[in-house]
Amino acid sequence: MAVTRRTTRAGARAPGTGASSSRAPRPAIRASSSRTKTASKRSSAWARAEIGGARARRSWFVRVWAFDWSSAGASKRVRAFAVVVIACAATYLRDVYVPERVRVAVVGTLPEWVNDTVLARLPALAYVPDSGARGVIGRTMALGGAEPKHPVVIVPGFVSTGLELWRGQACGEHFFRRRMWGTPAMARAFFSNQKCWMEHMRLDAKTGSDPEDIRLRAVRGLEGVDWFVPGYFVWARIIEELGGLGYDANTIHSAAYDWRLSPHMLEVRDGYFSRLKSVIETLHGVSGERVAILAHSYGDTVTRYFFEWVETPVAKGGGGGGKKWVDAHIHAYVDIAGPMLGIPKTIPSLLSGEMRDTAILGELEGMLGGILENAMGRFIGSQIKEVCETFRTWGALWAMLPRGGSKIWGDERSGTPDVDAAGDSVNFFLQLRESGQSSEKSFNHSIMSATSLLFEHLADSVPHNVAEFSHFLDEATRARLKKRIPSIKSKVAPNFGDSLTSPLPHAPNMKVYCLYGVGKPSERAYAYERVDDALRPYQLDVDQSRNGVLTRGVWQVDGDGSIPLVSLGYVCRHWRDNRKLNPANVSVVSREYHHRALPLGVGGFQGKTEGDHVNIMGNEDMIADILSVVAGRAEDVRERIVSDIDHLSSVIDARFASANPRESF
Questions:
Q1: Among residues 160, 262, 297, 352, which one is catalytic?
Q2: Are residues 402 and 518 in the same domain?
Q3: 426, 424, 394, 399: which is closest to 411 by C-alpha?
Q4: 225, 234 contact by CB (below 8 A)
Q5: Exactly one of 226, 258, 560, 625 is catalytic; which is it?
Q6: 560 annotated active-site
Q7: Which residue range forms the structural domain that includes residue 186?
């Protein structure tokens, strides 16, 4: 159960603790005069709730604790499940002290799959809320002589920036300048009218930009990237520690953006890279120091695009900064969990709307009985279809498609370099079987044929994205698509920032740091079936499981829980000695953080030692490394490899070396 305990004042009794569990807890003592009115009201409200509701809560937990899932009817299961979910949400989202016996009771009530899937994937919680412990790492380093040196620019990742409504349809007009993504306002917008919310989150399939009469824009400033909703931090921990070191709003800039857009459309619609260039020049001019860029996840894709864009002449679609601009303005680029070779799950996300978690619907159906086959099944199915249509309009997902072809992702002839399932290398990326047939009759797709399948399947429904990213395709598939979409040639976007073809900036004084987690299973290959559904003819084959490597239609390998190791680490290792991709001999340092989840009582769900793709943002070791970089203490950040990335890199390098020169680096 993801609950953070509040640190209580000396002498104050924590609610729910004390003598006998049969006695109602005593009301909280009166807040001291030094407390704010907000804190006083919160304490009073908690006291009233304790007096009036202790008996009801106690009897509620007894009933849930004693609930027999196996013998209850379907309707009772649904009601009980809803109660448990609401209880979990209430205790997880609220920053309150929860007695240990209550936590144990609620957690024990949950089926094991909820703990292993849903709760295990929740983002990190606030770090020691209201305890005065914020910025400890930064303050400690400051006492040791460290101080702010390089201005910091934050480039957030996918889905981690708040989006607010500036123009909407009639159903959403009352949400003007309220967040449709992020903060509790998102939940209000979603549950008040789910169809309306989904329409506002969607982009125009023909332009890749705003639908008619709808404008969502990124929330500017640090408040747009610090917290997703109250209690769930994104950049908040790092910002707090930068503050502890001595940084403030004048030396930290959040380069927030609409994460739905492709990098190309960020500049076309919002002038994002032009503004980013101007901000960096201003920070450099005011401080006299070069800037450190911190990017997380999709932010890495955006930043690498920016590096090539800013060096490219305006006549060729770039920013016109010239070859020396990056070296003159950028001290360090810190890539946090960047998908440099793309993310495998983007293909199933676009193909069927699956985000892996949808596979748990099979488990949900088993727990709730046959009720999912009726009204609830139709409701969930319709929502998945809406989500599927929305995903496909987001250019950002297309920008994170896997790249590198069979040399990196494998094929039927040579197998995959990073997957060994029970002694047999998986020789496909997507295994597809017809509904009703056995898995032995499946057709195996390589990464290239799976990508071609995706583009040809969606060419008519999202023509803009298919055209913009057609450089992912082989010549034969591209030729077929040109016949279906005559305008495809004019819509192909510049392929700036491609990690396998675009060299690092000519910046010998810049340093690159690749920081990422390992030791957590990540999606790598998929088993699908073709069903009779016009919108979602390809669906995850959740019946396929084998040897603990294949789980409900998904093969997993080492990674950070979202991105496989090869995409996290290969390019950074390859940059070190490759003069074609690193002509200026830029210093590249890789540091891996092995995933280690802590028990709840000592910081679980705070990311202190985690390598998880999201929770790594709270990893104290990584935060200390980042502070060393921005403080100009590069000597404190040394290479650390704990995974098999070097062996994996050597295998891939050998594949490229033996390939046709046109396919190699």
A1: 297
A2: yes
A3: 426
A4: yes
A5: 560
A6: yes
A7: 163-218
